[in-house]
């Protein structure tokens, strides 16, 4: 009896203190920081991942995120209206030096081809400056041949014309509903790869694409990872494939970009789950709460780096023919638009 009373008192006291701290700490950004430094540990993991990302970015001279950002900046410079006579002087030498470092490494060949194509275009029109001359020499010393088929900037009229109508696109979006019950059939990896190819066409900040899809279809591994997300407890036994979208904070040198892994991972995921629908596959996004214990466990199971953070997880499979689906009626369009 006494124990019960003590427990209730403790809970009440805790609640009062909690409300007091939240009210006081929310009064200013500084007080909020003190709260998260001394009272709550809820941001510790995010800070740790962010700082490790910046450290890795600073130490890594050939950082792929910075490199892709520079190629993107060159492309933007090439299409700027009205044309800028001189640009990229503060990063062109670094860009060609990094290309040198990466050219014969095992990094993604699309990144290399993109860089070679855009640098070729840049040097074909770049004005004579000391910096450009030096950069061009470094670029040419790679001795790359056959650059005529490499990527180039192009005119808006020459974009691929998909012929997908609004009606078709709306129907595809309506077809996609979160599915939580799946047939006992394994998901072909080729289909996942096809869906990821389409997903990768999503926009991302400076075209860095700071994410990986960690696909888990091994039954033993699956049974371990399925215990982690809270939102799949009632149907985890149904899931034959779980994908974790992992953001990589080492793509950034500054905290100003701390949200980009979440934004870019979400955009690519949207493309991905729509692509799955075209391949007769269904999915349900499962929330990845920022819970220290789950983060640590996933990090251990998937051997994640200190600068990697799970953004969300996705259950993928063939919809069970007899399963129920929530109607999930959407908001009225007028309520989500405000003009000017
Ligand atoms: C970020 C995010 C987290 C979600 N987490 C869960 C989850 O943990 N468990 C679940 O069953 N559904 C989850 N969902 C699915 C939503 O419940 C679902 O998208 C929403 O109800 C709308 O339904 P619809 O996807 O069929 O349009 C999540 C969706 C998103 C976008």
Present as ligands are: flavin mononucleotide
Shape: globular
Tally the structural domains: 3
User: In terms of structural class, how would the helical and strand content be classed?
Assistant: alpha+beta
State the CATH topology of the largest domain: NADH Oxidase
- What is the CATH architecture assignment of the largest domain? 3-Layer(aba) Sandwich
Which strand order spans the largest sheet, edge to edge or round the barrel?
A: 1-2-4-3
Distance between the termini: 61 Å
Keywords:
340 residues; alpha+beta; NADH Oxidase; four-stranded antiparallel beta sheet; 49% helix; globular; binds flavin mononucleotide
Write structural notes for this entry:
The chain is of the alpha+beta class and 340 residues long. The protein is built from 13 helices and 4 strands. It has helices at residues 2-25, 29-39, 44-59, 64-79, 92-103, 109-125, 130-140, 166-175, 189-199, 219-225, 260-278, 292-301, 333-336; strands spanning 211-216, 241-248, 282-287, 308-317. Strands 1-2-4-3 form a 4-stranded antiparallel beta sheet, with helices on both faces. The chain is globular and about 85 Å long.
């Amino acid at each position: 009896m006494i124990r019960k009373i003590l427990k209730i008192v403790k809970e009440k006291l805790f609640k009062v203190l909690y409300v007091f701290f939240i009210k006081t700490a929310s009064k200013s950004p500084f007080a909020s920081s003190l709260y998260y430094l001394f009272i709550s540990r809820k941001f510790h993991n995010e800070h740790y991942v962010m700082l490790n990302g910046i450290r890795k970015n600073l130490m890594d001279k050939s950082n792929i995120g910075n490199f892709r950002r520079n190629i993107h900046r060159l492309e933007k410079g090439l299409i700027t209206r009205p044309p800028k006579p001189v640009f990229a002087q503060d990063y062109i030498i670094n860009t060609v030096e990094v290309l040198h470092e990466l050219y014969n490494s095992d990094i993604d060949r699309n990144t290399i081809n993109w860089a070679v194509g855009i640098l070729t275009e840049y040097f074909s029109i770049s004005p004579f400056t000391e910096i450009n001359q030096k950069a061009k020499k470094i670029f040419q010393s790679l001795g790359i041949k056959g650059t005529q088929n490499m990527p180039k900037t192009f005119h808006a009229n020459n974009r691929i014309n998909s012929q997908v109508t609004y009606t078709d696109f709306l129907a595809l979006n309506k077809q996609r509903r979160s599915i939580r019950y799946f047939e006992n059939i394994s998901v072909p990896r080729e289909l996942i790869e096809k869906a990821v190819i389409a997903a990768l066409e999503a926009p991302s900040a400076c075209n860095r694409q700071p994410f990986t899809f960690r696909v888990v279809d091994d039954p033993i591994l699956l049974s371990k990872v399925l215990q982690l997300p809270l939102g799949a407890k009632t149907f985890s036994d149904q899931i034959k494939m779980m994908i974790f979208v992992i953001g990589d904070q080492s793509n950034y040198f500054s905290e100003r970009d701390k949200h980009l892994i979440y934004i870019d991972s979400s955009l690519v995921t949207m493309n991905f789950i729509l692509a799955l629908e075209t391949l007769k596959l269904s999915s349900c996004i499962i929330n990845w709460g920022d819970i220290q214990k789950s983060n640590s466990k996933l990090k251990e199971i998937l051997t994640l780096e200190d600068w990697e953070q799970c953004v969300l997880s996705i259950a993928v499979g063939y919809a069970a023919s007899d399963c129920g689906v929530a109607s999930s009626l959407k908001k009225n369009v007028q309520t989500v638009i405000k003009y000017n």
